[in-house]
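Convert to structure. Protein one:
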Amino acid sequence: MGYVAVKGGREAIDKASDFFRYNQTRGESEPLDVEQIQNQLYFLVDRIMSEGSLYAPKLAALALKQSAGDSLEASFMLRAYRTTLPRLGYSLPVDTSQMRIIRRISAAFKDIPGGQILGPTPDYTLRLLNFDLISEGTNAHREYIASLFQGITQIDTLPETFPKVIDILRRENLLVERNVNESESSKIFDITRESLSFPASRSASLQTMSMGETGGLLTLAYSNMRGYGMVHPTVGELRVGYLDVYVKNPYTGLAERTGEIKVTEAEVISKAENRQGDSPVFTLGYGICFGHNETKAIAMAVLDRAMQAEEPQSPSEDQEFVLQHIDGIESMGFCNHYKLPHYVTFQSELDRLRKAQEKA
């Protein structure tokens, strides 16, 4: 593909950038505070962190402000910033059963050990506009918070950990056994350091999906659930909470806690299969991502299960198709590069068409 340099456009480019900045600052409203974005638009901030593959809520909020609300552009900025950071080491694997839960539900069982924890979610309310938010002020915030805790003298704390729901099925040998090759158990693929090749290991596949674009994952997972695939999922357990992050102390060799991250984890149960003459068992799909993003985690789990198909029959079951088309930043870049000058290539096509018409 040929390109041609554009000369004499530097001033116009600078003015276009100034015009974009002007559009962000026009009007009489106060400039958005980064802390406001981080606290009040946390679903969007979490999505940007996941797709930008960097857990940094304040920087994700800054990127969202700078990009005027373009989530793909904000994720691009965050990932670009990540590439400038030094790689100091790797965190240690953690057991997600030790997650500090803020939300935990199961669609497979009504009564689960520890109970259903609905947590913070709009899932059970009508999708109706709340016009009171148009004129909402600081006093309204304070009054609402005061009304929530009015009359409450004691708050029961949640247990530190909850058992895994799918362990119920495992104990009865109703769920497929963990399928981890020896090579994968000893070496986790790092997609930020190694080029993705196919067939990809499960760790590479899960990493790629964890930083994939939510809409792209959802589109492919939805196609599978609608019949262009074989997965009809049941959410065995969906968790939202905080996981401790541990790194190995280079001097003592001991694991040291360095902080915590908010994650969403989904384990979906799919139809029973009879593999290699064994007793039929349920199969499992897994998804986990930064922040509170249940749609992404579930879609990721559905695709994880779909790509386990021995003979892919649909695009959502084809590992190469899925993993090559879910990165929102890469696909956005490829789409938007067509806005750049393609004068040489188009003139060549134009000449060929004119000559073809003359001959015709």
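Protein two, convert as well:
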Amino acid sequence: MRLSRPAAAAAPLVALLMLLAGPARDGAAEPLIADLSNHLIAITTGFSGTDVLMFGATDGPGDILVTVRGPSTDIAVRRKERVFGVWVNREALEFGSVPAFYGIASNRPLEEFLDPAMQARQRIGLQHLAMTLPQASPAETGLFQRALIRIKQNQGLFATKVGKVSFLGNQLFRTELHFPSNVPVGSYLVEVLLFRDGAVVSAQTTPLVISKIGIGAEIFRFAHTQSLGYGAGAVFGALLLGWVGYLVFRRL
């Protein structure tokens, strides 16, 4: 039987986790051990999204929560209004340190093992994301914040539902983390929390890097470091392409 690519990559580490989880009853093992099947996602020209396997082991029963946060950025949210039949941008609020990507998964619904106070304390869920709020009224801030979350969800960058963490037996667990084709590059943090009786008993954070490689990466880097040259080259290329097209169609 052939293993799938994520499973094949994780097989040696799963075996190690099983060995480490074995002595848990003697109190020698860590309460929580987790890792990723891949710590680097390479974005090439044909990148169409990918899945990364998160797997681990606990020293006994408990609830597992996995969150993925992308690099922080500042985002301005604008309200559009129709003026004389034309939609224009009017009021805008800026939110700081907004994660570019947010995903979440657990072995059962959050409300079954976490109360709202714990979710707020641990910054769990879209409504509790850590970000710098603008200087505006609470009602207005809430309205724009909900719009921000909705926009990111429509882009596939914020989770629309809690993913599934599956237990293999009483100690081993796994979940698939999905990253869409438009996922931003940068450093990500994958956090795994072990809960018992509604309290965190262990936590582990694992880094993940998403980076462009190949000719696409070189063009991206040149466009951001030499914007004037990139713009001039794009204009020249468009003019050259138009001229060549003119010569071709003139002879037809």
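The mean pLDDT is 82. The chain has five helices and twelve strands.
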